[in-house]
Amino acid sequence: MGWNWRKGLTRPLPHYRPIVARHRGEPVDLSFGQQRLWFLAQFESGSVAYNVPMAWRMTGRVNSSALQRSLDRLITRHHALRTTFPADEGRPRQVVTETKSISLKVIDLRSVEYSARESELARQIREESRHPFDLGIGPLVRAALFRSTEEEQVLLLVLHHIVCDGPSIAILLDELGSFYKEFAHGIASETPEPPVQYADFAIWQRETLVQEVREAQLAYWKEELNGCPAALDLPRD
After folding, report:
1. What is the pTM of this model?
2. Closest alpha carbon to 140 in 102, 197, 176
3. CB of 153 within 8 A of CB of 117?
4. Mean pLDDT for each consecutive 10-residue tract of the chain (237 residues)?
5. What b/e readout covers 124-142, taking b as 16+ CB neighbours within 10 angstroms?
6. Any residues with CB less than 8 A from the CB of 199 and at least 6 apart, and which?
7. CB atoms within 10 A of CB 174
């Protein structure tokens, strides 16, 4: 059953057909979530509000070649990580690029005075995290490896929220660790390709939710907001 927190149980939720692989490389419409983020990016050009930075301190010697190969495997495997969002006459589309590599930027901090190294590391992480992304051109993923000592490094990944969310980040980190372990130790393994990609979900979402569910949701909110003032008198300071 559907649940309305004010009105309790409502009519049963509709039965949705499963998501299947349909995307074949041609540009497709954005999902509703992507569309909101794209609009906000146009509304405030150059904003970094939706940059998603993640940093990990790594101890021991890091095999930068294995790390690079691990990142490339992620980019190849997950189409969303190499998707751009160009617009034609104001209509954005998601386009999966052929690029299957991400540039790992290596920054050596060992020449910095040891007492100032941590503050310089924090400063550079902030700087790398605050570069805006161009959604129409990409890439929408950046990676940097900061070397503090021979045995201590910090890996920084910065993604735009339009290509990632909480659950996808968890998957990304799990796979990155697995791939690095394999490449660093020369282990050959075959990881099954994802059965569907995000573009497949976007197609499914628009075909499935655009009619019955959307109309029901719009009707609900029109009823709830009926009689509300047309304008809000918000403080201007």
Report:
1. 0.82
2. 102
3. no
4. 43 68 87 95 91 94 94 94 93 92 94 94 96 95 95 96 92 94 88 91 86 78 88 79
5. bbeebbeeebebeebbbbb
6. 23, 28, 79, 80, 83, 94, 96
7. 10
